[in-house]
UniProtKB/TrEMBL annotation:
Protein name, entry field: DUF309 domain-containing protein
Superkingdom assignment: Bacteria
Region (Disordered): 1-51, 156-175
Basic and acidic residues biased stretches: 15-34
Amino acid sequence: MRGTIGGMTNAGASDARDRDVAGRARNARPRDGLGRPLPYGAEGVPRQPEGVLRTPEDTVAEARALLASGRPFHAHEVFEDAWKSGPREERALWRGLAQLAVGLTHAARGNAVGGARLLRRGAGAVEGWAAERGEDRLYGLDLPGLARWARELAGRVEDDSAPVDAETEAPRLGP
């Protein structure tokens, strides 16, 4: 039996995935501040809308605010929009920034192995993009500083697998 949840269809037991009106899989469950699914009907935090076109400056500003409020999962979604819709020559940078945010998400959830791996992968992507382009400060971002932050946090997460506080550990994007 199919019903709707928040404007999305819930296929029930035969197809456990929620679908949007076009039939694409979309999870309508509420989520906590770190993006973890909560039971249907629970109070969650507002989700970031997907597929939003923003200027690079707006992307950085929105991600900065989300990281500062301890919501790296949501910042990851903002960076992902830029990665998927931005200019081809910047996609590797935005993907690397999304990996940094989701690495922090995993570290805050207590997934030390995944968090450290994604933090290092994102650091490598950001550094690689900066080296290839000869640009280490784009849109107010300190790319070498972000890579250092990520590697340092990855080491600490591996040494102590306890969840980190996403708000206090978040990088500061720009001034």
